[in-house]
Amino acid sequence: MDRNNRLTQIKESDLSESRLNEEFLTWLKTKGLNWLLLVLILLLGWLGWNIWQQRRQESRDAAWTELVAANLPVSYLEVATRHAGIDAVPVLAHLSAGDRYLSSVQSGVRFDRTTDQPDYRLDPSSRTEFLDAADASYRSAIAAVESLGPDPSGTRAPMLMSAYFGRAAVAECRGELDAAKAFLEKGREIAGDRFPAVVAWSNRRIEELPGLATAAAIPSQASLPARETLTPLSPAIADDLLRDLMSPPTPPAAPEGATAPAAESPASEAPAAPPTPDPAAPAPEAPASPSEPDAPATPPGA
Fold first, then answer.
1. Tens of pLDDT along 258-280?
2. Which of 65, 74, 172, 263 is the most exposed place for a label (fewest CB within 10 A)?
């Protein structure tokens, strides 16, 4: 009896397992491929997302690295063009390019020349060219900030203020004081209540603008007198002068056979006393008075 029950249970378990296998095979044939394809698509999507995030981070790191390494305005503009849309890199690149041009105008020398080149100093044409390039860079920075959309948190305000103040400095260099005042007022408006120090500086700068209209002109380098060129001393002469100054003079040696002069007494000698007259010596005859006539000689035998 027990044996028959055991055989029955085995047959039923076999039938159940075979039924499950058939149902699984049927599911694979009908829906399994679709689900498998869906899983593969999700897996590929997850891998693609990770790869895209990694590439994006690498691009961001490269953009900031190139921005820090740039030094010339051309390099800054290339960074702004190559990495457009990556954080604030384009805005900062345009601001840096404008600052580079403006600082060159303020110093009066070119940043792309060496001191031994004839066009090292700015002339009126190159000065105008640099001012135009600086103004264009500041305008590009403003456009890049505004293209990012609204800024409710105000995190882009410092960049906008820098751009408008840069344009104000360019207008001052050109002598356009009204335009400079308008840009300063725009920067002051952006600063608002969040940057009171910037507002105070803007007000003070606006008050100083009328004084720039009567500012004295700075003479150019060409109008200054030529600097006198001094011939440096040779090293041998300089060494001799230093040696003479540092060592006391040596007295000349006395010739052979000469007697050294006696050392003079520092005390002054007393004057000699007058001679004492000798009482045994006859007194000197008094000289005859010139007013009395000589007595006549007595004749002999008188």
1. 555 554 544 444 444 445 555 55
2. 263
- Please report the pLDDT score of residue 14 as a whole number: 58
Contact 97, 137 (CB under 8 A): yes
Report residue 278: phi and psi, to 5°.
Answer: -85, 125
Task: Name the nearest CA neighbour of 157 among 182, 186, 180.
Answer: 186
User: Closest Cα to residue 166, out of 75, 103, 84?
Assistant: 103
Any bridge partners for residue 121, and if so which? 109
The token duo for 209 is: 């603008």
The string of DSSP letters for 44-94 reads HHHHHHHHHHHHHHHHHHHHHHHHHH--SHHHHHHHHHHTTTSTTHHHHHH
Query: Position of tokens 């009896």?
Result: 1
Low-confidence ranges of the chain (pLDDT < 50): 263, 265-274, 281, 283-284, 286-302
Tokens at residue 195, please? 């940057």
Q: What is the pTM of this model?
A: 0.59
